[in-house]
Design goal:
With 551 residues, the protein is an all-beta fold. The chain folds into four domains: 222 residues, Jelly Rolls (Sandwich); 110 residues, Immunoglobulin-like (Sandwich), CATH 2.60.40.10; 99 residues, Immunoglobulins (Immunoglobulin-like, Sandwich); 87 residues, Immunoglobulin-like (Sandwich), CATH 2.60.40.1220. It is flat and about 85 Å long.
Length: 551
């Protein structure tokens, strides 16, 4: 029975880098997120403060709301929710166990979060998930809003009661303009500046063989009734084409600009400017409809010099003619260079040479012949000179071609004794396909004092390193490490939480691993998410990182 309860379900909202998407179907589009709670902190931190407010429990004695580890609705680690009897006297864990011990009689415990303000709200909602198993009607879970921090007066948004024979979670949406007053009738709390969310569990004095109430994944937001113009990333296109292009010498290109309007209705007319290299290149006046996205193109073609960094900047509502929720997201900016033909970077790794030996360190040297002088180098070591599956020497920190001197000090003090490694460079200018170059001979590691490790070298911890380069133009490398054999799943998601590509899935040996993502997608923000399970320790490791693709 417990396994059925622990099954998690993916819900239709994503929290990625602080971006919260309210469910589709709301009439309002300009939602401001007040609060998102997945209950991800350790139970000993409960009650805690988050999103500018604090959790409290009332009364401060007896069995109370607290963390229930391992029980969740949303697949968000650590897997947990809050339970009506998880703490005792606000200082120690309860002696009860969920789904084993029934909830105690005479409970009247409240979990309270706040304060929050709806002073500028034209509409507001709170979405939550709950799991309830109680004596029917008499014992219940109630959710609502209070105008005081102790929850003495609760304006009810809903309640649930009764046996949970199907062992299922349910969802509820609380409309802040249609709450039930303790005196009866409907009350709106829109316009109030001091409010608190309240979750109350009540039981009478009869002992029941039920398990109480759990709450998870609470999302609270409001609409201020204003528009919001949102700028996207500028793009470069060939004439009469909507496909994003890389500008090459001698070519003519047009600039594109994706943007969106959040809100209701049609905006007043406003000005959009396109500036290229400090010069006004294009200007137009447009209107936009709330809930719509647009793509505006400059009506003139542009050509520019090579070996120079250019920039294009698009600005929405130049003269502040539209009242907006946020005024700091109206500018889209892109740096770019015009690429010369046949300009792939040319860098030759010179060392190690035949017979080179290292104890505590070694200078890796190279020659650079790239005429554009904009290449970056990432160095790896490998047990053989076949393929490109080595371990990175300088993770997340590119060496720029113009580095003086043309060399890099490699710390070999912790490398295994009496081992041989080739060195190779991954060389890129962010426009052309990456170039790989191996040293002609391996480097022999020999430690004079013989106290260094022998045999294979493995990382000590599970880790996900920053991708490099970042931002990137067409490809980026992702390095992850596992100290033991592990099952690995490495995936790429877009900003709306949709799976874009699966880069790795299956069992890998212990060590550091490099995966290259050749991004055949449009410009934007993407997220790399990894999940590793150690085959020896059964330890679970998850991590994610943000990546920016600019074409």
């Amino acid at each position: 029975m417990r396994n059925k309860v622990l099954t998690t379900v993916l819900i239709g909202l994503f929290v990625l880098s602080g971006l919260v998407l309210f469910p589709a179907g709301n009439a309002q589009a300009t939602w401001i997120t007040i609060f998102v709670e997945h209950f991800t902190l350790p139970w000993l931190s409960w009650p805690w403060s988050c999103w500018g407010g604090a959790w409290t429990v009332q009364p401060p004695y007896g069995y109370q709301w607290g963390i229930a580890p391992g029980i969740t609705y949303y697949e968000f680690e650590p897997y947990q929710s809050i339970w009506c009897a998880a703490m005792l006297n606000n200082v120690q864990p309860s002696d009860l166990e969920p789904f084993v011990d029934p909830y105690p009689p005479n409970l009247n415990t409240k979990a309270i979060w706040g304060p929050f303000s709806l002073a500028n709200a034209e509409a507001a909602e709170c979405m939550l998930w709950y799991w309830v198993d109680t004596q029917v009607l008499i014992d219940y879970l109630l959710w609502g809003v209070s105008t005081d921090p102790y929850g003495n007066t609760i304006y009810e948004g809903g309640r649930a009661s009764g046996p949970n024979a199907n062992m299922t979670w349910a969802t509820a949406t609380m409309d802040m303009s249609e709450l039930t007053s303790p005196q009866g009738g409907t009350v709106s709390l829109l316009g109030y500046s001091q409010l608190w969310l309240v979750f109350q569990f009540y039981s009478n004095n009869a002992i029941q063989d039920y398990w109480g109430a759990f709450v998870d994944d609470i999302v609270l937001g409001y609409d201020d009734g204003l528009f919001d113009l949102v700028a996207g990333y500028p793009t470069i296109h060939e004439p009469d084409s909507t496909l994003i292009s890389v500008p090459y010498e001698g070519g003519y290109y047009r600039f594109g600009f994706p943007w969106a309007v959040e809100g209701i209705g049609v905006t007043p007319p406003f000005t959009i400017n396109c500036i290229v290299d400090d010069t006004l290149f294009y200007s137009t006046r447009l209107t936009g409809e709330g809930g719509s996205t647009y793509y505006t193109y400059a009506d003139s073609l542009w050509t520019g010099a090579v070996d120079t960094t250019h920039y294009v900047q698009w600005t929405l509502d130049v003269n502040d003619e539209v009242s907006e929720t946020y005024e700091d997201n109206n500018v889209g900016y892109l740096d770019f260079v015009v690429v010369q033909f046949d300009s792939a970077p040319f860098i030759e790794i010179l060392r190690p040479t035949e017979g080179d030996t290292a104890d505590e360190g070694f200078w890796i040297k190279w020659d650079a012949y790239d005429r554009e002088s904009n290449a970056q180098i990432y160095l790896y070591y490998d047990g053989d000179s076949v393929g490109y599956n080595g371990i990175i020497i300088n993770p997340g920190a590119p060496i720029y071609e113009d580095t003086d001197p043309d060399s890099f000090w490699w710390d070999t003090s912790n490398m295994p004794d009496e081992s041989d490694y080739y060195v190779y460079g991954l060389i890129t200018d962010n426009f052309n396909a990456p170039v790989y170059d191996y040293s002609d001979f391996p480097l022999h590691i020999h430690h004079e004092n013989s106290v260094y490790p022998r045999g294979g070298y493995n990382p000590q911890e599970f880790s996900l390193s920053p991708n490099f380069p970042n931002p990137f133009n067409a490809w980026t490398s992702i390095v992850y490490s596992n100290p033991e054999p592990a099952l690995v799943e490495l995936q790429i998601f877009d900003i709306e939480g949709r799976l874009v590509e699966k880069l790795a899935s299956g069992e890998v040996s212990a060590g550091s691993h490099t995966v290259t993502w050749n991004a055949d997608v449009s410009s934007g923000i993407y997220f790399c998410r990894i999940r590793m399970v150690g085959l020896n320790s059964e330890r679970v490791f998850t991590a994610s990182q943000k990546m920016m693709l600019i074409r």
